[in-house]
Amino acid sequence: MSKRYDAAELQQFASEMFQRAGLAAERAEVMAKVFLQADLLGFTTHGMNRVASNLGWLLDGESRKEGEPHLLTDRGNCFNWDADFLPGPWVLTLAIEQALQRVPEHGVVTATIRRSQHVACLAAYLPPIVEAGYVAILTCSTPAENTVSPQGSRDPLFSANPLAFAAPAGDYPLLFDISMSVTAGGYVARAQREGRKMPQPCLKDSEGNISDDPAAFKNGGSILPVGGADHGYKGAALSAMLEVLSMALGGYGRADTAAKDDDEANSVFLQIIDPQAFGSRADFLRQTVTLCDLWENSRSDSDSPVRVPGQRAWAARAQQLREGVELYPSIMEDLRPWAEKLGVPMPRPCDRTTAADKEGNS
């Protein structure tokens, strides 16, 4: 039977650990909420899985516990901040709150952030935006990271460069969070930890050979861009575009010597769009609902139904809020030493079970 944890208790657990690590209660609560939201949506490598690394950064002084982001430019409908290593989930949430306040007046609000400590799962920031009726575009890149090789090169150049998007539709939003690499580094690390191969040859060793062995990546190799060995030029082009939006517009990135020592600090691009700046909300929803309906009801080429991006994540979020959050097994193992070190009691699994669990026991 799968262990599940009450969402509110998980959030409180993470918040208490962040407070013991030196964050003010309000900031700790924001951090915990973002990490929990990722697991609610099913993004298990960048949710509660990243609490441990963020605790380490706070205690080691790599994350700034106090202070505000430095304002670099502000034109009302766009602004640029230097986070100066403030915790990523907190500073990005702050930027989103600023943008949401401004978008009714400006219609479209765009923000960039440089030197934000790792922001984790981008999809975790989208629910409040799409629930407010807005469209969201969110991407980030990591100036100090070189993990993804361009098409035809054996040298890693880009970071994973995730892109998240959300738009209101019908019963669920059109929502996705995808990296510009065939797989994410978190999945490669998880496979190596568990002693298994990748599901497909999505890596390249230091000599340029395609591989499914996580060790190839860890020993100086790279991850293939979206499109893989045959069509990776598409992923490489998209990676370049996202680094322009996040690093170049933010004015800080690979051209700066200091950025090489920034570890996992992110450059962020955020855009929030009010559909009513362009026409009626009804006209907008008529298009998005029709698109999702056509997609969902198209003929499947297998025994599985056709799935629209956002459909499963939105359903998983609602189910896990009702029945408890099902965490990847290694997450609680990794958090236990931190809980003991910080003197925070571990949360107890709740009594709720999944429908699959019930069927298996019937």
TrEMBL record:
Signal peptide: none annotated. Residues 342-362 are annotated as: Disordered. GO terms for molecular function: oxidoreductase activity. Residues 349-362 have a biased composition (Basic and acidic residues). Keywords: Oxidoreductase. InterPro entries: Mal/L-sulf/L-lact_DH-like_ah (IPR043144), Mal/L-sulf/L-lact_DH-like_NADP (IPR043143), Mal/L-sulfo/L-lacto_DH-like_sf (IPR036111), Malate/L-lactate_DH-like (IPR003767). Belongs to the LDH2/MDH2 oxidoreductase family. This is L-lactate dehydrogenase. It comes from Microbulbifer marinus.
